From TrEMBL:
InterPro entries: 6-blade_b-propeller_TolB-like (IPR011042), AB_hydrolase_fold (IPR029058), Peptidase_S9_cat (IPR001375), WD40 (IPR011659). This is Peptidase S9. Residues 1-19 form the signal peptide. Keywords: Hydrolase, Protease, Serine protease, Signal. The keyword Protease applies. Residues 453-658 form the Peptidase S9 prolyl oligopeptidase catalytic domain.
Length: 658
């Protein structure tokens, strides 16, 4: 018999050997990371349907398939294998079918398909000329309400040469959608037995987010029916009978956004989200939870006292509470509200983020997608406030890796503001040895960096950098006043906060003041430009999908409503526009070598923003480069481009910081 000392030694040797075989995260790991989303619980509560997005390295694209996991997590079943992918998966009310939208074969538009849960191929349910968006089963399972976009006939010429864009709208372009014509999106109801499609709404206005009442007799939906919907975000909640020719009754009157209606179990009340701002462009605020009688009456705001953004709201089975996801200072938690008094209670705690939320009424529990700093997203059940993991999607991804260290921190800006951040450092970082710094700035600006698995910052930390995430003023999760601190004053307080993070990490002895850099995408790229024009200590920068000459963005991007409200029209408020363009006009004062990146088809922050700064740097002989990703929108969707972006960041910072 082997001695205990021998067995202990063998175990230690095995552990050491295993540690040596593990490696840091690399850019090519983008080809191995999968993304579960949109969990849906079966009516009997025993199965969870979800979508799994996976990279296809051969075809250099992402695909999406449908999977199921049993409620105990012991069984995992892949349902679809089509390369074209599936979305918007739903259970039929009797649990016999799974519906989803997809383009298969000769489909020009996405159609609804039905998959029998007993097996077999999915069958096409609809054959509709127009894009199907939101849809929902009736409680009895005999009908489906859906939104359908008017078909675009402009690209159907026999010569295959697209007809000219004929534009008359105030808001005439949108990322991913392109140039906008006068088509609308309307509600339709589909009878499964007769295959008959009836029109519920028509006209110049669009309707979205339809939801059946519990008895199936009425439909709630969201619509902007102001005189010129293009120049404001004033959506309201409407209710109508679920039959053609019925009149729509407007329930809400807030001049901001009212959206995402959810019926109470008894059908007497509708919960929904309301923007905290009533301005034409409501970005500088966050969603509040509200309730209103479904027959009309006074609304009640339930979450105002929390001063935190809510999303993914659902009624409890008994109709007494409403549960949703709440952002709060780098975390996302489940929180419940008494539907009458508004009293709230946090149902979960800890450094994690939830992305989705659906009730399992049969089990009196919740299903969600959860991630932590060292755990990529998995499907979890939440029972009694405790998450229980159901899937093991990421085990093979994590198996060969040794991940960076992650910890939260708080810094103080020059004006005394306390700013929350997250620091990523190499797994083998030596205490007391100063590291080169990369501050990677999130976009938005109304968003937050949180304790989830951040592939981008993990890759850069694995390359040997201290990487800081900073929730500068303008970020969400800290209250409305914190968000609105940068309103009409870009490049000031958020830059102060970014510089404050650098000062904090230098003073803590973590980073080398002579080897600091900046990077970011979208508003992160814009903030990068502002910061290098303010502080010359940064020795390298990568500005992605950013802009500096803000005056040139008027009419060339999608934010016309925001600009005219927040900044005023340029011909009346020229000085404001020029002041916010200071990185371009101070280009000759910038010393930081900067790589500029952009997406060719981006209507969110058009490529001109990067091109202008690149041209200025070339004219001034400041080290620079310009990378443009072909046929990409604001978000990069090609795996090889994502890998390329990682590699170019590392190369650029290695060149100037190492």
């Amino acid at each position: 018999m082997k001695s205990s000392k021998f067995l202990v030694g063998l175990l230690l040797f095995s552990m050491a050997a295993n540690a040596q075989t593990k490696r840091p995260l690399s850019p090519s790991d983008i080809y191995r990371l999968q993304h579960p989303s949109s969990p849906q619980v079966s009516p009997d509560g025993n199965w969870v349907l979800y979508e799994l997005r996976s990279p296809d390295s051969t075809k250099d694209r992402f695909t999406k398939d449908l999977w199921m996991t049993s409620w105990d997590g012991k069984e995992q079943v892949q349902l679809t294998y089509e390369p074209s992918g599936e979305s918007n998966a739903r259970w039929s009310p009797d649990g016999k079918y799974i519906s989803f939208t997809a383009k298969r074969g000769e489909d020009k538009y996405s159609q609804i398909y039905l998959l029998n849960t007993k097996g077999g191929e999915a069958k096409k349910l609809t054959n509709i000329k127009g894009g199907i968006g939101d849809y929902e089963w009736s409680p009895s399972g005999d009908r489906i309400v859906m939104t359908i976009s008017d078909p675009d006939y402009a690209d159907s010429a026999s010569t295959k040469i697209r007809k000219p864009y004929v534009i008359s709208r105030y808001h005439f372009k949108q990322d991913y959608q392109g140039y906008l014509d006068s088509t609308a999106t309307h509600l339709y109801i589909f009878d499964l037995a007769t295959k008959k499609l009836d029109t519920l709404t028509k006209g110049i206005y669009s309707e979205t987010q339809p939801a059946f009442s519990p008895d199936g007799k009425r439909i709630a939906f969201t619509s902007n029916r102001t005189a010129v919907p293009d120049n404001n975000e004033n959506t309201d909640i409407y209710v109508m009978d679920a039959k053609p020719g019925a009149a729509a009754v407007k329930l809400t009157t807030w001049s901001g956004e009212d959206f995402r209606p959810v019926w109470s179990p008894d059908g007497q009340t509708i919960a929904y989200l309301q923007s905290s701002s009533d301005e034409p462009f409501t970005m500088y605020g966050h969603p509040l939870l509200a309730v209103i009688p479904s027959s009309g009456g006074d609304k009640k705001i339930l979450s105002a006292a929390l001063d935190r953004p809510l999303r993914n709201i659902h009624w409890s089975k008994d109709g007494r509470t409403i549960v949703g996801l709440m952002e709060d200072d780098r975390q996302v938690q489940l929180v419940s509200f008494d539907a009458v008094t508004g009293m709230n209670a946090r149902l979960t705690s800890g450094d994690h983020s939830f992305y989705d939320l659906e009730p399992n009424t049969a089990k009196n529990s919740w299903i969600t997608v959860m991630s932590t700093a060292h755990q990529p997203a998995e499907i979890f059940a939440v029972e009694g406030g405790e998450p229980r993991r159901l899937t093991q999607i990421q085990d093979s991804f994590l198996a060969p890796l040794v991940l960076p260290k992650v910890e939260g921190f708080k810094s103080k800006s020059k004006d005394g503001t306390i700013v929350s951040g997250i620091l990523y450092t190499p797994h083998d970082a030596v205490a007391g040895k100063k590291l080169p710094l990369m501050i990677f700035i999130h976009g938005g600006p109304v968003a937050q960096d949180e304790f989830d698995f951040d592939m981008t910052r993990m890759v850069y930390a694995s390359a040997g950098y201290a990487v800081a995430a900073v929730n500068y003023r303008g970020s969400s999760g800290r209250g409305i006043s914190y968000i609105r601190a940068i309103y009409g004053d870009w490049g000031n307080r958020e830059v102060m906060d970014i510089i404050g993070v650098a000062n904090h990490l230098v003073a803590a002895g973590i980073v080398d003041e002579n080897r600091m850099g900046l990077a970011g995408w979208s508003y992160g790229g814009i903030s990068t430009n502002y910061t290098i024009a303010t502080d010359s200590r940064f020795k390298a920068a990568v500005s992605g999908a950013g802009s500096s000459l803000q005056l040139s963005m008027y009419g060339s991007d999608q934010y016309i409503t925001q600009y005219e409200k927040e900044l005023g029209v340029p011909w009346k408020n020229k000085d404001k526009w020029l002041a916010l363009s200071y990185p371009f006009f101070k280009a000759d004062k910038i010393k930081t070598p900067t790589l500029f990146m952009a997406s060719q088809s981006d209507f969110n922050v058009p490529v001109i923003g990067a091109e202008q700064m690149y041209q200025a740097f070339k004219s001034l002989n400041i080290p620079t480069g310009l990378i443009i990703y072909p046929n990409q929108n604001h978000g990069i969707s090609v795996p090889s481009y994502l890998k390329d972006r990682f590699q170019r960041h590392i190369y650029w910072f290695d060149k100037y910081l190492k």
